[in-house]
Write a structure and sequence with these properties.
Elements: H1 9-21, H2 24-30, H3 39-43, H4 46-49, E1 62-66, H5 71-84, E2 87-91, H6 101-107, E3 116-119, H7 122-128, E4 134-137, E5 155-158, H8 167-172, E6 177-178, H9 191-205
Parallel strand pairs: 1-2, 1-5, 2-3, 4-5, 4-6
Helix pairs in contact: 5-6, 5-9
């Protein structure tokens, strides 16, 4: 059985980026861009990029996954972040190994194009993203995600597949909770679908800036 990632996860992140980096030339070709445009992403390992701000822009949207459990979901979210230019943060402990083949397969050859950050604890997220508006997805939230006006540097936070966000976070950010409307009595949407729904609403409000 594969163990959850801990503070030693940086090495696994490096392995994941190096393997995916072999495909970066092909990815750039599909994007009709010269590989030199991606020189930073191709030359730095994911571990090197963590906290380095190599891709960081002040107006970047951020997606935060708190203790995600299913590698396929995280891989799908990574692909969504890659194609939208969104920074992806993962808060440990993770429910899978970063060498998991399903994680790699779901992200395909998009991993080198993701600005990926790993945090050992939630407190690190608050320090790195201080001053930015946080929006936490929760099934019991009163406000729909579609009722919110998202600034371009918004931080969109999602919890683990089976337990959601910790109660202490929901209490601390009680005024920033959002939900995706569903039929009564049903538990939740798939994590990667939920991220895509909320993220694309934020992007829509910004006129899909930088996308085509």
């Amino acid at each position: 059985m594969e163990q959850a990632a801990t503070c030693s996860g940086a090495g696994k992140l490096r392995d994941l980026q190096v393997e995916a980096g072999l495909l970066v030339g092909r990815a750039c070709g599909k994007l009709n861009m010269h590989p030199g445009r991606w020189a930073i992403g191709a030359s730095l390992t994911v571990a090197d990029r963590l906290g380095s701000g190599a891709f960081f822009r002040g107006d970047t949207l951020h997606v935060v996954l708190v203790e995600p459990e299913i590698p396929q979901n995280t891989g799908n979210v990574a692909r969504t972040c890659a194609v939208t230019g969104t920074t992806l943060h993962m808060v440990g402990p993770l429910g899978f190994s970063l060498s998991d083949r399903y994680l790699k397969r779901a992200g395909l050859d998009y991993w080198p194009l993701v600005d990926l950050r790993y945090h050992q604890a939630w407190a690190e997220v608050e320090v790195e993203l201080a001053g930015r508006p946080f929006y936490l997805a929760a099934t019991k939230a009163r406000r729909s995600y579609a009722e919110v006006t998202y600034p371009p540097d918004s931080v969109l936070v999602f919890g683990a597949e089976t337990k959601g966000l910790p109660p202490e976070l929901l209490a601390r950010y009680s005024g920033s909770l959002i939900r995706i409307p569903m039929r009564p009595g049903l538990r939740s949407l798939n994590l990667s679908n939920s991220v895509a729904i909320v993220l694309y609403e934020a992007l829509r409000q910004q006129g899909f800036s930088g996308l085509e």
